Amino acid sequence: MAVLTYDRQAEKWGVFEVTAQGVSEGNPFTERTIRGTFASADGNERITTDGFYDGDGVYKVRFMPSFEGEYTFSLEGNFAEGTDGSASDSTVPQPLSGSFTVIAPSEGNHGPVRVANTYHFAYEDGTPYYSIGTTCYVWELQSDERIEETFESLKKSAFNKIRFCIFPKHYDYNLGEPRSYPYEGTPTDSSVLTKENFMEYWTGMGKKDSKSVNHWDFERFNPAHFRHIETCIARLRDCGIEADLIVMHPYDRWGFSEMTKGQDDLYWNYVVRRFAAYRNVWWSLANEYDLMPQKSIADWERYARILCEKDPYRHPRSIHNCFALYDHTRPWVTHCSIQRTDLYKSSELADELRIRYGKPVVFDEIMYEGNIQHSWGNISGEEMTRRFWEAACRGAYPGHGETYLNPEEVLWWSHGGVLRGESWKRFALLHEIMCETPGVGLRPNPEGRGGFDGVCAVPEDLTRSGYYLIYYGRQRPSFRDFYFDDESEYTVRVIDTWNMTVEERGTFRGKFRIELPGTEFMAVQIRRVEK
Amino acid sequence: MAVLTYDRQAEKWGVFEVTAQGVSEGNPFTERTIRGTFASADGNERITTDGFYDGDGVYKVRFMPSFEGEYTFSLEGNFAEGTDGSASDSTVPQPLSGSFTVIAPSEGNHGPVRVANTYHFAYEDGTPYYSIGTTCYVWELQSDERIEETFESLKKSAFNKIRFCIFPKHYDYNLGEPRSYPYEGTPTDSSVLTKENFMEYWTGMGKKDSKSVNHWDFERFNPAHFRHIETCIARLRDCGIEADLIVMHPYDRWGFSEMTKGQDDLYWNYVVRRFAAYRNVWWSLANEYDLMPQKSIADWERYARILCEKDPYRHPRSIHNCFALYDHTRPWVTHCSIQRTDLYKSSELADELRIRYGKPVVFDEIMYEGNIQHSWGNISGEEMTRRFWEAACRGAYPGHGETYLNPEEVLWWSHGGVLRGESWKRFALLHEIMCETPGVGLRPNPEGRGGFDGVCAVPEDLTRSGYYLIYYGRQRPSFRDFYFDDESEYTVRVIDTWNMTVEERGTFRGKFRIELPGTEFMAVQIRRVEK
Q1: Are A60 and A52 a contacting pair, CB within 8 Å?
Q2: How far does B383 lie from chain A, in Å, by closest CA?
Q3: Which candidate from B375, B453, B480 shows the least CB-CB separation from A452?
Q4: Smallest Cβ distance to A375: which of B375, B453, B479?
Q5: Which of A22, A134, A436, B506 could form an SS bridge with A79, CB 3.0 to 4.6 Å?
Q6: Residue B21 falls in which region: left (phi positive, over 0), alpha (psi -120 to 50) or beta
Q7: How far is B188 from chain A (nearest CA, A)?
Q8: What is the pLDDT of residues B221-262, one digit of tens each?
Q9: Can you give the pTM of this predicted structure?
Q10: Interface predicted TM-score (ipTM) of this complex, two decimals
């Protein structure tokens, strides 16, 4: 007999969760099912979605309501004694239904992020979402203390998206064990690992892990692992931060990157059932899919189909490259998740990527600010900040990461912890300026004003004319002359993107000259005064 | 009757000059000829070359001997009474011949620069020439005082090539009159010029100079103009600096860019006759040929043919672009003279240009260090220095220029004068390191060592193995591991290209680690110890 537990109230775009007691014998992960149908009384919404086994005989079904008002739900499945997957076949009918009320969203809850205006994002309530991302691959698999440190850092920052993995990570500076594993079993003894030999333990990539003595049951998840990640997702959500979940990745010594198709599909379904109801979830199918030769394009497309079929909320979906971009024209790809493929050009390629794919361009990796030996992990704070502005003014979205050496080898890029760099401090100003864009989103000025002069951004919606954000990057003009028309007045602000000063320069008409300090990283914001 | 004046002695690769008195009536520039044949007694060399009219009834023929020993010469032409272009027809035979001795080259005289090892340069005596160029478009047309200032600056610098124009230049910050004009006549009154209206006075470019009242006789040169330039070429030569002569350019208000084909050819012939005997001359057919729509490709090819036919010494020849590279595969092009066509990549394109053209790649413009408003003229000293190292380590040759605002509006880029920037001070170190290359010239390591790690240079001659120059640019590794083989010993030097320090780090074998400061602009030089 199933006993249901649930709150009578949920907020719009919050998580409504029904908990049911069920059987724990056998392998509930593969043998048992639970499914809920959630319907609003006004008929605006009716969603059927799978639930999941959470261990100890506990089953859960989650739902993210999109409307305020009264809802009902009903469950089905063979999860409990007396249920066998068909409610009508139950020998003893159970009260597998209920009702609840969806109230208005709380402050700061704008709903899930959607693609808006072709190249940009907005929350479901229409508020533009200007992504300022960072990457901390396995911050959530560190100690409680470290996780608190990471949250403190995030709260001080302007980051509103963080990329991280569900599986643990094995790589240079990442040889420790995670706080938990996604499956029941035991890992290879990692005490034999050193900075010199760790590549031998890398699965996939053609390097077989001959020394591995991993013992996992890939059909039995460890619910505590996922429950912890959910806590982190929810806390991120409450901080206004999108959780860009990397579902698969190649940096593996445990064999999680080398499961069978059936095991993969089981994992994908479990992930979707657990996480999809969190409004701040984004799906990153992989970090560096092209470093996983064991997975074919057909595999990635199959995972994507699972997402498309099983995520009722259509969270943003993408897949991240190392060397070769995935075919981001695929219809399931909602936005491009780009790792720079050139040592010298990263954000500068936004224009052509926008044209090629006709989707939002997110530069999730434009190299890391830091000083490690690896080529991708040692640019300066100035250069990182430059790449952020360059991306933003080209109508794309930049991503941060930090790889500063320290005695504890706690690097933000993987572990979170404290931010040691200089660029992150500058992103609040950039975000503030991005939020001043008329309409939703910036784009490179199609009239090319600026030309070789860095980049000139205008609103994506060209009918919203009279707004220019010009970023000079490493160019250092001592002045610039402007002319738009003879009639209008324009207010001008000069922004020192590095020193974080914004100077009001007054109102101008006709041809006018703006004096600049002749230093790097300056921007000029020009707004027509509307009569 | 012709009276000849000449020295009885010349040095190898020096200028031997014969001066003859002749007629001054009519237009000697078009109506009179003088031609010399110079032959070494040992039969190694026999060159016939045209001379030129130098005004006031003076004719000159110049010759650059390439061998030591006894030489004879004979003249012909209708330059004098009693000569009519055919010595045998002279009514009174004249002593139109003589002899002289060519002695060993003086110190620092290595002969003219030639292409060497496909992608590089060497002086005729075999000494490698590692070009460190600068651009001062019309430095030689400034006041005597300014010219002396420029020479003082050059002497303090490592520059061994300077690009400059024979015609005066009209452009922003270049509205003044030159010290002299190449033709007899009078220019438009320049007192009407302002920073606002100067483009209206630009000839070519489709903007007709309706206000021009230039009056020139394009068939009568002003010898003083050319004589002064020769003095400058000779002084550069004596400073060890190549004179990269820009023969045509679009920045013109006098009409020198819009002469007829016949006038152009007269000019080209005059230039070659006067300048070719100076060993340090390079021919740059144009600065920004593609901004001269009034000249066709057929025109440029015709000028090139004049050079090929009339310059007996085969000085380096190229042609410089603004937006579109000239077809540098043309056989007369000895090396590529490149202006960067991308705001973000300049020297980084060396690899593909080397492959495309199979010739030395000279980046004569990679933007200017400075702070003027124009997009091409305001990078930092750090960025300029970075582009220099980046070019050098890719087996190409960088070019400098400076555009710092100052109250007098004397900008090195055009006027010469004092160097105000920071990059020029760093080039002596780069040149010193370039000169340590085994053999002639560096190339990008075909084994790709380095990869995304900046750039790794090895000797062009791959048989000279065991030498690596790795430049990290804006990357800031705190250490790098190296491994070449187990047997050899390698000495390592760490070069801070910006702070100009060179640290000997000792000798290493097998796998070894080099600690680095984690700052930008570092290089590592690794040399195998030969047993």
Answers
A1: yes
A2: 8
A3: B375
A4: B453
A5: A22
A6: beta
A7: 28
A8: 999 999 999 999 999 999 999 999 999 999 999 999 999 999
A9: 0.94
A10: 0.91
